[in-house]
Amino acid sequence: MKNFIEVEKTDEEQAEQIKKWIKENALQIIMGVSLGLGGLWGFDYYKGQQHQQDLQARGYYLSVVANPSNTDALKALKENHAQSTYAQQADLIMAKQAANQGNYQDALNYLLPLTNSTNEFIAQNAKFKATNVYLEINDTDKALDILGDNTNKAFSALYDNIKGDIYFAQNNIKAAKEHYQSAISQLDKDSRLAPLVQIKLNDLN
Length: 205
Known about the structure:
- The protein has 205 residues and is an all-alpha fold.
- Helices cover 74% and strands 0% of the residues.
- The chain starts with 10 loop residues before the first helix and ends with a helix.
């Protein structure tokens, strides 16, 4: 069973899923940006101000990445850029650090609010990590509850892999096999996750 720390090994797989999601939603993204900003008066000024804000948020975020114990950087990021993606990504880092230290409730405190993020990738990432935290503390019912139903096929392979882990933890071998098989069928042959899922499936046979 994958725990919170081990799931980091599949981050490249998550990156593959992001690329797939962006490709499938490229038109909507472009239209959203065009409609949202195209009609604004003083767009050049807005763009310059936004760029400065993004640079500042990125600086705070990188400080947190370099040193998760840098509470000043985290506080500044939360206070000045609370709605930014950087603030949410920083929470993912803090959740990882908390889990690594065995502070699972602290990790969940960071992750659970992110499951409602308007950024779909961050929301899905938080769900996967929160699910693994619940698995780590042997609370499979909450793991199933937070994972919920998959609504985006771009994340379906990761979803099936983690759901297989939950059913394995519940000793529901039949369901675990089905989800592992589903995950493998959706992964590319050169995927780094596929051999790991195959090993888990083989162990159940």
